[in-house]
Design goal:
Distance between the termini: 83 Å
Low-confidence stretches: 141-145, 147-152
Radius of gyration: 26 Å
Largest sheet: 6 strands, antiparallel
Strand order of the largest sheet: 13-16-27-21-20-19
Number of helices: 3
Length: 480
């Protein structure tokens, strides 16, 4: 009479018992030889919480393994967890937690949806790190490190050219080749920077405007690999995540009236007689142009290009038919600060800003796109600058300091945007870029305009869009 909800992993325990990773119920359960089923650990509440086996909670246990000493290892969410490493029953996270990739000592390692785990002959662990597309190793008795860098390579990442070659581009509506308004691009701030410790985030996709209740469609052929590909049912952020494309703000598998699609691939379930969620089994295939659902009250598809954790700019990665941009970005203002974030003022009769020592350059800029409303402000694709001593100077920088070709690390938000930056569903959109810092999809770090020889200079800042339009603005500076 026992019931399971999406059991994804199984292992033999204590000779004749079965351990089951009951992922949907967020529990680790035991099946006795006589058929009795009981919960070993997990209170069903969700979340990565260590503790006694009665109080600990799981995110989504997907795999389980047992070593020769009886210790249990669980792949859970983005973490590797264990039971039996202490004299008393205790659930502990031994590696991972936040999504990412890092080879390091065990406690500092990072994973991206591990979905399989096995124990080797020397007690080492082998982990199928699914969304990083790698097999990782936690060493046995002679090695306390996770996936030694000289053994395991970095996760594979698509280039934009490789991604485009997988499937022709199309819009997530019908007709497939009719261009739509773009309401948001990758790298834009979401939230507000009020101080240097403010918490905001990057927008990780492309917002494509549609009408409330309009049918949203898959943009390429793909197969579901995540057992919980549908998340946030019934909320404004309901989504389905395919291996290389994500779609957010969709009523998955149903009309705007909540009438269910007549499509058996969408498996709905009810609680107390009311539809409570939908699942799409692993291995389910969808083709480009097939309906996934309808737009909810957000009135757009938030389209994510790239594997989870390796997102790229969808404008580049998909090349949607008919999309174009002949409008220059707009540079509104250049503000200079010293290294302690004190603003520099004009102090000379010629109107030049006098600078001494390391200087920060903040550029307030935005982009627009053909076919968009005049009020719609998008983030530029790249930001850079040059310092010119004599002559005309370049029409583009030698290098772009801030680039949104790929999704930057979430830790890079405060390296990209200065105080006053904000964007979201309401209020004015302001992008204050810290042009002297270095931010891209691979790394981020602080930078400065370093001391120059005494004299007069022109500081020229640049803002570019993906389509090659480059705007520039000059500021006269003087160095003593």
């Amino acid at each position: 009479a026992a019931m399971f909800d999406t059991p994804l992993g199984i292992a033999v325990w204590q000779g004749d018992k079965l351990l089951v990773a009951d992922s949907g119920n967020r529990r680790l359960r035991v099946v006795e030889p006589d058929g009795r089923v009981w919960t070993l650990s997990g209170n069903g509440g969700g979340g990565l919480r260590d503790g006694s086996i009665g109080s600990a909670s799981f995110v989504s246990p997907t795999a389980v393994a047992v070593d020769d000493l009886g210790a249990i290892y669980i792949a859970d969410g983005n973490a590797i967890r264990a039971i039996g490493l202490r004299p008393f029953p205790f659930v502990e996270t031994i590696s991972g937690g936040g999504r990412g990739f890092r080879n390091s000592v065990i406690a500092a390692g990072l994973f991206n949806r591990p979905s399989g785990i096995a124990v080797g002959s020397a007690g080492e662990l082998y982990i199928a790190d699914s969304d990083n597309a790698l097999v990782r190793k936690i060493g046995g008795t002679d090695d306390s490190h996770l996936a030694r860098p000289n053994v395991i390579r970095d996760p594979p990442r698509f280039t934009a050219e490789e991604f485009r070659a997988l499937h022709p581009g199309r819009w997530p509506y019908e007709p497939a080749d009719r261009a739509r308004e773009i309401a948001g691009t990758l790298g834009e701030i979401r939230g507000e920077i009020k101080g240097h410790d403010s918490r905001a985030r990057f927008h990780n996709g492309l917002d494509i405007t549609g009408g409330y209740g309009e049918t949203a469609r898959f943009v390429r052929d793909e197969k579901v690999v995540d057992p919980f590909a549908v998340e946030n049912f019934g909320t404004g952020r309901e989504l389905i995540r395919m291996p290389t494309i994500g779609y957010i703000h969709i009523r998955i598998g149903r009309e705007s009236s909540d009438k269910l699609f007549e499509d058996e691939r969408f498996q709905f379930y009810a609680v107390d007689g009311k539809t409570a969620g939908v699942r799409v089994p692993r291995g389910t295939k969808f083709r480009a142009g097939e309906a996934m659902g309808t737009l909810n009250s957000q009135n757009h598809v938030h389209l994510i290009a790239g594997r989870p954790g390796a997102e790229m700019n969808a404008i580049d990665a998909l090349v949607l038919p008919g999309i174009g941009d002949s409008i220059m970005p707009v540079i509104e203002e250049i503000i200079l600060y010293d290294e302690f974030w004190t603003q520099l003022e004009t102090k000379t009769a010629s109107g030049r800003i006098n600078i001494n020592g390391s200087t920060r350059i903040v550029v307030r800029a935005y982009d627009r796109k053909d076919g968009n409303l005049d009020r719609r402000r998008l983030a530029p694709y790249k930001i850079g600058y040059e310092v010119i001593k004599n002559g005309e100077g370049p029409k583009s920088p030698e290098r772009w300091n801030i680039s949104f070709e790929k999704m930057p690390s979430e830790q890079a938000v405060n390296y990209t945007y200065a105080i006053g930056s904000r964007s979201g569903a309401t209020g004015e959109t302001i992008f204050n870029f810290i042009a002297t810092n270095f931010v891209d999809g691979e790394s981020y770090r602080e930078g400065f305009l370093t001391p120059l020889d005494p004299g007069d200079y022109t500081l020229r800042v640049f803002a570019a869009d993906f389509f090659g339009n480059i705007a520039s603005k000059d500021l006269q500076i003087e160095v003593n």
